[in-house]
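User:
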Amino acid sequence: MSDITELLLDAAADILAARGFHGLRMIEVASRAGVSRQTVYNEFGNKEGLAQAVAVHKTEEYLTGIANRLREDPDPWEAMRSAFRFTFEQTEKDRLVSAVLTGQNAEDLLPFITIRGHPVLFHATEVVEGHLSSHFPGRHVRFTAETTVRLALSHLLMPSGDLDGAIDAVVRVARVTMDA
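Assistant: Predicted structure:
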């Protein structure tokens, strides 16, 4: 990814976090990145393309962090605990993801992880599926992977207790579905 692309994505993420999709202006993204508006259009096509690129970029950042944590611990369940802790803690720090989840200043972004969230769900499920497959060769793990990711997303959208309780619930469900 070029430095200009990175600058544009960072600028767009800041604006999206502050004002949502409807508040995103290509001219403001260009101005913050120090390029022309035409450069933004050339790079992303339109506002929807820019927002999708931000979503893909953020998803890749998260999935890289998750994959790294899944490789760190030889115990598959402790590795998952570490990966979900990373996800939940990172979400608290990330202005854009926090805005998406809470709707604060960005109510129009929630569809990017709900009704239009298939890329997030699909790629996160692939990462968890790969992890489980490496620890449980020959087992059908797709259902467990997808269920686990959906439950984690649910806890992110509507927390129902403390962080450790949420992580325990997600990992417990994963273990139970693997044994089923």
